Amino acid sequence: MKRVFILSAFIAVFCFATTATAAMKIKLGVVTKPGSAQNIVAEKFKELIEQRSKGDITVKIYHSKAIGNETEILQQIQMGTVQMGVITGGPFDTFDPVVRVINYPFLFSGHEQADKVLDGPLGQEILKSLESSGFKGLCFSENGFRNLTNNKKAVKTPEDISGLKIRVMSSALHKTIWQTLGANPTPMPWPIYTELEQGVIDGQENPLWVMEVYKFYEIQKYMTMTRHVYSPHIDVASLMWWNTLRPDTQKMVQTAMYDAAVFQRKDNRDRNAARLKMLREKGMAIEDAPDLNAFRAKVAPLRDMDLYKDARVHALLLKMLDATK
Fold this sequence. Notes:
D-Maltodextrin-Binding Protein, domain 2; 2 domains; 5-stranded mixed beta sheet; about 45% helix
């Protein structure tokens, strides 16, 4: 009976693999709502893959937490019940600590450097590492440089952060960053508008598009341009599912997702100046020139903390720091 089951499973996988572009449907999970950075990647991918496959491949985007938070989406991708996802980098560190390297504070000087490194060999090393956790890393799209907002006081130095209750992602690294800076970090799944509005948390940290799309200018008075972490999305597929696809289908999916990521990065960056202007007009008090040297000095000990002591993680961090000097 066991042999029959194995043989049947093999035949099923083989048949799927040989007909991978015949009316194939992809479930793609994102936690954010339409208009958000993740959704722009997902929608562009859907457009490109459906066009290039001549309709043989269709994509259903599950947005707005329809199938769970980012950690739950990743778990479904591991199991193969969801085929793909556009996920913020932070939640991956509970699956593979190597991802902590790209979220190291003040790592990248700007967008051009981030693209060069993440599209290059070091980025590919991180994507390849995810296979050990059941993910096929495809490429990096962009969440953006994260900035601090709060509703209590203006923040210019790390000392100003002391005691602020800041929402963070479900990420050991992000929690440690804000503990090191003197805040009270509070892991909390997305979305968080109600919690900010009711004062359950004082503030949060995210890229500019979040302030616009989620209307945080309505409930957050102060923003500090800390740019403390460059936050990519990691665009992934279920490795279990990926291995059933024919090589030509894999190439088509990979290329369509990369092209969608490049489109989205440019779109996100092109909008940032207008976003800042709008946020000021809406009444946010924006600190453009915080004491970033003081912030960098405060978080410098992170490289020697337990989060980076794993030999593989530490070696990659040193390569990353060298590449971004």
